[in-house]
Amino acid sequence: MTELITSQVDQMVALRQTLHRAPEISGQECETAQRIATMLHSAGADRVITSLGGHGVAGEFRGQADGPTVLIRCELDALPIAEISDLPYRSLVPGTAHLCGHDGHMSIVMAVALALSQKRPSNGRVVLLFQPAEETGAGASAVISDPKYAEIRPNYAFALHNVPGWPLGLTRLADGVANCASRGMRIAFTGKTSHAAAPEDGISPAPAMAKLMAELAQLGTGGTLNEEFALSTLTHVRLGEATFGISPGEGELLVTLRSVTNAKMDALMNAAKTCVANAAGNLTSSISWHDVFPASVNANEAVALVKAGATRNGIQAELMSHPMQWSEDFGHFGRDETKAAMIFLGSGIDQPQLHNPDFDFPDALIPQGANLFLGIIRHILG
Q1: Cβ neighbours of residue 11 under 8 Å, at least 6 residues apart?
Q2: C-alpha span between 31 and 38 (Å, rounded)
Q3: Is 41 helix (H, G, I), strand (E, B) or coil?
Q4: Is the full-model pTM beyond 0.85?
Q5: Which residue of 192, 214, 323, 335 is surrounded by the most CB atoms within 10 Å?
């Protein structure tokens, strides 16, 4: 069952390719947000909220009777990666590209807007949220903290993400944790420089950093994605200046911590902080946290609604045996009374992986993604 006609699908494919040409990175999605707001107004949204948690945009479609609020969320932002492509609609912005499929996710949700403009829900309301800054982990929490979010706080929230390496259109979701928790740990050390001929007259961070590089890696080495899963990945090291005459007096380490559960993340953070304290010695050290993603946990009720809504529109939604190892800030939406679920759609067996420079969202997924969301909406709201 589909509510979209061919001309609407063609319109959304054109939108996707337009968005692909003009990507904007996290926190800078100004023109993308303006384009989306204009299209939501054109689609007849009952209300359009802008500047939500930054450049976020929400379109509200109301039913004739009172009922629950269903939120459908997608992402506005692109990545600071140069695209490698000969496509006629390749990115026109140097060093920036839609290489995670957010251009496709936006087009799917805008297709839902077109369908709702023709047939409102029988009751309740649908909120279509175009969220900023997913890639940095800052967007969802900023949206939720915005006072305007209280006006659209949902009973149910749903999102999807495309998955390369799966058959095109394969629909899966987890009953429980859908995406791992992760956060970036920046460790800075300050000591004292000295002449390279007399390093003993300074305080070099090098020994402490070498020790930490080994110890932090042992905090988590990956493995089976269960409650004890932990992974610590060293992503960057900087020590002093790139010169031969100075024994360094400062340095920093960047590490990404990852776990299936938020409780395990707390334990991993505490263990990492202990390692830093033990290694610092005479050095001054500081720790800051970045790109914080809680575990994205699907509520049982929301999972059941996805499966029923998918079936309604002729889509089979399979349950996954384990969560995705990568993170998603959609997890913030299910941390209050909102029942939330993240859904995954296969984007092709031979599709380049997310964040690869030659990734391109398959336009064939737009109608299926829209019909999946519409099935869920009609099942809940009529």
Answers
A1: 114
A2: 11
A3: helix
A4: yes
A5: 323
Measured distance CA(174)–CA(341) in Å, rounded = 8
pLDDT per residue over 128-152, tens digit each? 999 999 999 999 999 999 999 999 9
At 62, is the secondary structure helix, strand, or coil? Answer: strand
Reduced to 3 states (helix: H, G, I; strand: E, B; else coil), residue 77 is: coil
For the record, the structure tokens of 181 come out as 């928790």
Where would I find the beta strands (DSSP E) of 65-197?
A: 65-75, 123-131, 156-163, 171-173, 177-179, 181-190, 194-195
* Phi-psi region at 79: left, alpha or beta (left = phi > 0; alpha = psi -120 to 50): beta
For residues 109 and 74, the answer to whether their CB atoms sit within 8 Å is yes
Is the Cβ–Cβ distance between 272 and 183 less than 8 Å?
Answer: no
Tens-digit pLDDT profile for residues 287-343: 999 999 999 999 999 999 999 999 999 999 999 999 999 999 999 999 889 999 999
Which whole-number Å values give the CA distances from 156 to 43, 180, 295, 334, 381, in the listed order?
23, 21, 18, 9, 11
